[in-house]
Amino acid sequence: MVASPLTAINGERAVVFFFVFRVLSSLPLSLLPHALSLSLLSVFSLFVEIRADGSLSLFKTRPGASSGIMLGAVTLPTVMLSKLIQLSRAFSLQQIEIGELEHMTMQFWAASACCCGVLIFLSILMWCAAYNKNPHFSCSVWDAKFSLSCVILFSVVCCISLATISHTGFNTALKLLWLLCHGFAAVKLIQHLLNTFPCCASIGEALLLTSGLVLYFGDMLACTISKVCRLLVSPELVSIRYGIKRSEIGIIIQGVLLGLLIFSAVFKFVIHLWEYFSRADNSESRKNKEIRRSLIFFASLGFTMIVVSPSWMMIVLDFDVHPILWIFQFVLSEPLKRLSLCIYWLGLIYASVLRFYNISKNSKIERILLRKYYHLLAVSMFLPALIYQPKFLDLAFGAALAVFLVLEIIRVWRIWPLGQLVHQFMSAFTDHRDSDILIVSHFSLLLGCALPIWMSSGFNDRPLIPFAGILSLGIGDTMASMVGHKYGVLRWSKTGKKTIEGTAAGIVSVLAACLVLLPLLASTRYIPTQHWFPLLIAVTTSGLLVAYTAQLDNAFISLVFYSLLCL
Known about the structure:
Layout (H helix, E strand, L loop, with lengths): L4 H4 L2 H14 L7 H21 L16 H24 L5 H34 L9 H23 L8 H25 L6 H30 L15 H30 L8 H31 L6 H11 L1 H28 L4 H4 L1 H17 L1 H24 L5 H9 L13 H15 L12 H20 L12 H23 L9 H17 L4 H13 L2
EC number: 2.7.1.108
InterPro entries: Polypren_kinase (IPR032974)
Organism: Gossypium mustelinum
């Protein structure tokens, strides 16, 4: 079924198109192939979303959410392209080396390959459903020709661009094979996520998560392969180092996340093996089995975090000392400031969680509004640290993400004795966007604040970029919800809850925060080169996306705002 132009462009799609157009209009001529590929990806994703709307029976997605395919498909490639624009400015000023620019180019094409691969997969699913006479799907010769044309043009542009990257030891065929692996891995991963965790995410949210995970862990795999080839084969045969020089904190965060990935896979395999051989023993009580399972869990987790993960960091990424020892040395290098900040964080978390937990149990306040207070908590925690201790905040974000992941694993697998307690506690803060299978809102808030800070490490000529998540989520989204809930009258749509008053309050509050923040940054370490008209466009675009999107906005808003601030 082909939608008319008027019904095809809704509010969310219009904002996404403007977001992509704003980035493309800022591109230098040297990035023209990238602009063409992103344009093709945007049109292809819109085409797939229109065909999929109203017929999402392919997967069990989050109730109440639209497919979000277009938003999920263009967000990460556009973020990579915005970063590439920023690095192009740095290279023209001789602030970075050519290798860093080439690495970001490969990251852009890898993100685009992930999204394009998933779009092709969704198109094939809909074609198969139409071929099997599914009444929800229709397929025409024009649909097939249009999709095939987009894919072919995208591949040609990709080949032309990659041929210009002067990586010694990596010819164009190997680069294309590497991108093909990214696309295949993204397809397999999104299938696994949507089938293993039904009703937990929309297709767009799963697509953003999938492309991000494949991109991040693919970079780790490339570094590992490169290092192994250097050690076992010959340094001359692998003269390229896939990647850039990483900071110690970035290496630690990568190592911890890799360790948790390895741990989850190994623990699941060990448990299945143990249950298979212990089936014959029916005399053992259920309590003893849970205790033994818990001992295996914590023992394997400790071994992975203390031995396996640090070994990877020290061998592959040439980390000089054991990461745990380095963390102690880093914290104690400025003990008064950093330990005081830890005490401040712990006190604030304890008081806030205790207060809000009691309110959530006994109050009739809407859960989504109650959770906005945690956005304000994020502002009060992260903003002072980002101004005065940015490197320590980088490390703290990594530690918080690791703790959240471990607690979610414990909750999902019901690891004794904490599994049920964590589940009961976390359930007090869920809303309609979470499920019993997977609780993701706290992850999206943490990553929404952390990703702009992590991605702004290195060269940064825009002072507000690291604050993109804190401003858009902690201030803008919070004020939009509170003002819209209390004073909102004029709604953006008849069926939605978002109001014009709330959106205006969110935009004005972010602009006011920027007005206060820029002079403060100028007095510390930044030179305020942020122009106000591009800032107004960035704030307004992200505010309108909050108003129109039905996706988990924490996952998208900060990335959109970050991309626009890079220009």
